[in-house]
Write a structure and sequence with these properties.
- This protein is α/β, with parallel strands linked by helices.
- The chain is built from 18 helices and 14 strands.
- It has helices spanning 10-21, 33-40, 51-60, 70-76, 97-109, 126-140, 161-166, 178-188, 203-234, 238-246, 267-280, 286-299, 301-309, 337-347, 360-367, 379-383, 403-409, 424-429, and strands at residues 2-6, 25-29, 64-67, 79-82, 114-118, 147-151, 171-174, 198-201, 318-322, 351-355, 373-375, 388-391, 414-417, 433-435.
- The strands form 3 sheets. Strands 3-2-1-4-5-6 form a 6-stranded parallel sheet, with helices on both faces. Strands 11-10-9-12-13-14 form a 6-stranded parallel sheet.
Length: 446
């Protein structure tokens, strides 16, 4: 098939690379000429394991191409995927300006039947608005060309996006058109050979499924963080609780790891957008509001534990951070707990000395050069001369550490483990003042 994808961000680029890898011809279009130039030169603007090699291979094979020409993009594929950003508006709703701009572009340039595929995460009812935008552009041309709009939400985890696309649990398509169903079956046939993963439903149900999935996962995280905070005050160990409840197959072990809160481009935005959508139909989604409130509070716990360790005075202290990205295997710092912590530390007069395997450039882009931020090349350099260590991201490189070395290296033996990577008893025996999340007494060194 010939397939057009509007947007070369995270979703668009992964989708384009994976579809071209199974033989489809894919043309990715973006208005950002600098980004397209980088992609054509073999530079990938985001970090995602395996993506650079996948893009390079399919570009070399001639199946994956890039353009800034919207007319050429619309002319290329019968399937026109919209995979542009839907950032949160000031009121928490999803901003659809880029999605609707693409829809109008398709309507302005199409010369035959097209299927507009909403791949971006969009609120329920967006397909109707896309249809109106395309129809309006066609009417302005005096044209009555036929087209369809369907929903095909993405379910990609940052850090495992290629695996999720190629071996995902389901492929959801929202449509009531047999013609669209046939085309989408052809598109995804290479990834649907082992067993039937395609699920067809009405458009609004498909749109809601994406938001419901992310909201459910975010709810599990906030629930466990709530239990962790309770365990901390009751003298219980939330890691033992996690093992106990996870053994129940009705609950399972996925997404019940307590920590310092969720971040990224999906969960915060989607929970807010779904709550906003509920308000638009006169329904107050109190559970979603609580999920978001718990997460905001959880991100503040790292600073609170540091302040407790230093009796409220962090002025002049140097704090080492291991991890800046919101999760491992990505360079994404959007809504990352590390950002909440760093900004609180700077406001308190502290200095940050940080290391992340992939997010250093992103941190420089966000914060620029400043005297109270030093980015170093390695976890050892981060703790050198530091008064405390905080683990913000559970990268594999941080999962094992020599506690005796850490005790000798830190000026003050304070460790705030925001991801519960270490054994509190071993940390205590090594002489560390070890704060974790929900692991009995807050200060293991007591």
């Amino acid at each position: 098939m010939q397939i057009t994808i509007f947007g070369t961000g995270y979703v668009g680029l992964v989708t384009g690379a994976c579809l071209s890898d199974v033989g489809h011809e894919v043309l990715c279009m973006d208005v950002d000429a600098a980004k397209i130039a980088r992609l054509e030169a073999g530079e990938i603007p985001i970090y995602e394991p395996g993506l650079e090699a996948l893009v390079s291979h399919n570009v070399a094979e001639g199946r994956l191409r890039f353009t800034t020409d919207p007319a050429a993009a619309v002319a290329f594929g019968t399937l026109q995927f919209i995979a542009v950003g839907t950032p949160p508006d000031e009121d928490g709703s999803a901003d659809l300006q880029y999605v609707l701009a693409v829809a109008r572009t398709i309507g302005e340039h199409m010369d035959g039947y097209r299927v507009i595929v909403d791949k971006s995460t969009v609120p329920v009812g967006t397909a109707d608005r896309v249809r109106e935008a395309v129809s309006g552009a066609l009417a302005a041309r005096g044209s009555e060309l036929e087209f369809d709009v369907c929903s095909n939400p993405e379910f990609l985890k940052e850090g495992a996006a290629i695996e999720d696309f190629t071996h995902g649990a389901r492929i959801i398509v929202g449509t009531d058109s047999p013609r669209v169903e046939a085309l989408m079956r052809e598109c995804y046939a290479p990834y649907n050979r082992h067993h039937e993963k395609l699920m067809f439903m009405d458009v609004r149900s498909a749109e809601l499924t994406k938001y419901a999935a992310n909201a459910m996962l975010a709810t599990k995280i906030s629930f466990m963080n709530e239990i962790a905070n309770l365990a901390e005050r009751l003298g219980a160990d939330v890691e033992e609780v996690r093992r106990g409840i996870g053994s129940d197959p009705r609950i399972g072990y996925h997404f019940i790891y307590p920590g310092c809160g969720y971040g990224g481009s999906c969960f915060p935005k989607d929970v807010q957008a779904l709550a906003r959508t509920a308000g638009e139909v006169a329904y107050r989604a109190e559970l979603l509001e609580a999920v978001e409130a718990v997460n905001h509070r959880q991100k503040a716990t790292l600073f609170a534990k540091l302040a407790q360790a230093f009796d409220g005075d962090l002025s002049g202290k140097t704090v080492a951070l291991w991890g800046l990205a919101f999760k491992p295997n990505t360079d994404d710092m959007r809504e990352a707990p590390s950002r909440v912590l760093m900004e609180a530390l700077w406001a308190a007069g502290a200095r940050v000395q940080a290391y992340d395997p992939e997010a250093m450039d992103e941190c420089r882009r966000l914060y620029g050069e400043r005297d109270d931020l030093v980015l170093v090349e390695g976890r050892e350099a981060a703790v050198a001369g530091a008064d405390a260590l905080v683990i913000c991201t559970e990268w594999k490189a941080f999962r094992s550490v020599d506690f005796v070395w850490l005790r000798r290296t830190l000026t003050t033996p304070v460790v705030i483990d925001g991801r519960n990577l270490y054994d509190p008893q071993a940390a205590r025996q090594a002489g560390l003042l070890y704060y974790a999340v929900g692991r009995g007494a807050s200060l293991a060194g007591d």
